[in-house]
Structure formats: structure tokens, C-alpha cells
Amino acid sequence: MTVTATRSILRLINSTLRTNHFVGLQSKCYASTQTTDLKEILRELIPKEQKRIAAFKAEHKDTVIGQVTLDMVYGGMRDIKGLVYETSLLDSNEGIRFRGKTIQECQAQLPKAKGGEEPLPEGLFWLLVTSQIPTQEQVDWVTQEWNNRADIPQHVVTMLNNFPAQLHPMSQLSAAVTVLNLGSKFAKAYSDNVPKSKYWEYAYEDSMDLIAKLPTIAAIIYRNLYRDGTAVGAIDSKKDWSWNFATMLGYDNKSFVDLLRLYLTIHSDHEGGNVSAHTSHLVGSALSDPYLSFAAAMNGLAGPLHGLANQEVLIWITKLVEKIGETPTDEQIKQYVLDTLKTSVVPGFGHAVLRKTDPRYTCQRDFALKHLPNDNMFKIVSQLFKVVPAILGDIAKIKNPWPNVDAHSGVLLRYYGMKEMNFYTVLFGVSRALGVLAQMIWSRALGFPLERPKSETTDSLMAIVAAKKKTGANVSDRTKA
Q: For the chain, which terminus, N or C, has the lower number of CB atoms within 10 Å?
């Protein structure tokens, strides 16, 4: 099968998914129950999904779903279909879909806080876990669960309060999450020889506990570094997850709270191949508990080619303002971009998978048009949106000249007073927990095995290619490990 033929098949598959003809959990074939207990709903869903996947594998286990080229192997495994990740799917033209729902659909259909305009992340988590749009009562149940589980052990607080001020916020987040593993219900259950069929229950408990605690941990880090160590205060049971988070950070502006709800929703998941999601999936496959798996994911998110990119965008725009002013012309913007391209790339533009404007960028732009249309930094972002794609589009090797999610988020946070760019990735990390932990629950429920792909050396690849040329036939792996 040729690469072109494979891509045609995959386009057909994506079209099928989009029109909801695909039978199964992804298309909500199971009737939505009105109970507010998320764990009980999972008890109903999991056996059905286990049976569906078992039948699918039994019938089609030998079906070829793609082709691997040498360029893919050396190119970061781009486009290799090599793992199952249920909670979201990234389409190169449409962008991310959360359990089949676009961001626009999530904004329209997910429950909102009273007086708020953006979806509650609690609702997005429910969708990721169940593939069902929750009711307001179900979302309220999640909010109360997280509020009730939010207490931080004293030894974690003590550790955070004793970190040196020079330690990056992401390093502090990773360390704190790792130490939370002391209370892991999954680790204890495993040591107690709990049956594999029960693993998901303890992964669920750890995941709910961790998500509940992350805003407080992040707020302690923020206040220790940027607010003279002032106290974060207590969780307010009348506030939702994002509102409590904003209050603990020290921001009570109503629009900022709504921005945070939007931010935590849209950064939650981006299918399973990105660094943070794949890391959590890989480490979790070793049956490391959700704390250790998520901590590993955060170490990946901290990299400049992943989560750190949002602060790099704002740094670049800040330097632009310093050089050509707060109200530059389009021509000045164009020249600054061309000068940048002589030595580096334009941060915030392009994506490994997407081939159009990132819908996560678009919804942030819509938020800015509504709440800060006259902000000079936003105006510059808008100019970049107009100028940069045309420039990058003339560079042959750039497949996607359009802005991604990182091109906008920093400017929004800065507008509301959060100018500490080193902290932006921590916000990203808190959000990403929703996606990777929802998937981890399902990974344990479906009994996904230890991830162990086959690697090759350059010499062994050369031997495979030589043998293929000599025989004119495909040469498979010679060994298994």
C-alpha cells in the first residue's frame, strides 16, 4: 500500500468519525445516565467498551493500518500510527476534537458557571471520561468532589515553601506531584495484589485527587515566587475549580476567571502523540501510579519545544515592541518577521500536525475581541495573524504557516496582570492533567500493555534497506525485544 493510498484511507476514517457513523463510545452509543457519580457511570461503560474492543481486535488484528518510511523513523516518528489514545483526536484540517466534539461545540454544549460565558473544565473532564455531555448537576458533582479532595499534605507544603526562588516553577510542580505519590491509592492497591480488573478504580481515585490538588499546588508556587509567599487561602465550596484557582492566585476579576475556564478547557488534551500525553501514557504503561506518570509528563511539558513555547511567544512580541514600538505598521511587522527568520523561527506559528489555524487560537482571539479589543499587544497579535502566514507560506519547507495556541495565550494572561511568563507553563500543566488522567483511567480499564516499540540502529536500518533493494520485497523486523 502506498503512502498516498494510506492517507486517502485515513481521510475517509476521519470523515466517518466526523459524521458519527462510527459505532461505539466515541459516538455516544451508550445511553447517558442521570446519576451524578462519575465512577458509577464508568462501571457501566467499561464492560461494554472492553467487549467492543475485544471483538474489534479479534476480527481485524492482522489489518495493516499504515506504512512506516525511513523518513518517519528519523523524523521523530511523525505520522506513525503506534498507540491508542481515546479521549481526543487531532485532525490536520479541523483541529482537536474532544470525544468527537470540536472546541466550538464544547463551548456551545458544555455547562457554564452562573454568569459565566465559557465552559467549565469540570464538564470537559466528564466528556473526556464518559464521551457524554454532562448535565449541570453532574458538573456540580465534579466541582464538589474536587473541592473536597483539594487538601495538600503538610510535607508537600513544607517542601514547596523551602524551594529556592531560582528553581523554575515547572521543576517545583513536577517535584510536588512526585511527592504526592506517598498517598497513591493505586500504588497501595498494586502492592496489596488487587486484581487487574480493579486497577482502573484506583487510577480513577488518584486522578481525581491529583486534579483536585493541582490548583492549590500551582497557587503556592506562584505566591512563593511572585507574591512574597502570601497564603493561598482555603478552598471555597461555593466556587468552581477555575474560580477557586483564580482566587488562590490572587485574581478575582470576573473576566479573568472566565478566561481561566477557557484556558484550562482548551489546553487539556491534544491526542496522545504530543510529548506530555505520550510521556504519561508510556510511564503509566509500566503501571507507575498517576502521580509519577503525570510528574513525568510535566518534565516533558517543560521543554521549549512543547509547553514552554507560550512564554517564548510573549518574549518575542515584547522584544518586537521594544524595537519598533507598541503601534507598529504592517510593514514594520513584516520586516521584523523577516529579520527573525534569518536566525530562527517565528514562535507561535506552525504545528507538527495542523495545516490550518489552530481552533484553540481562534477561540482565544474571539475572547480578546470581546474583552480587550483595544489592547495594543492584542492588536499586534492581530497584525501578526495577518502578516506572518503570507511570509511563511512562501517558504517551501513550512507546511503550516498559521498560528497555533501559543500565539495568543500569553498576551491574554498579561492583559489581566499575570506577567510572570515562567509560570505560564504551570497553567498549561494544570489543564493538561484533565486529558492525560482521563486517558489513564481508560488505559487501566482496557488493560493496555507495557509500551515497548522496536528500535533500530542506523547500521541495522541500512541493512534492511539494502536487503529490500536486493530482493525487492518488504523486510520485517528480524528480532523482537
A: C
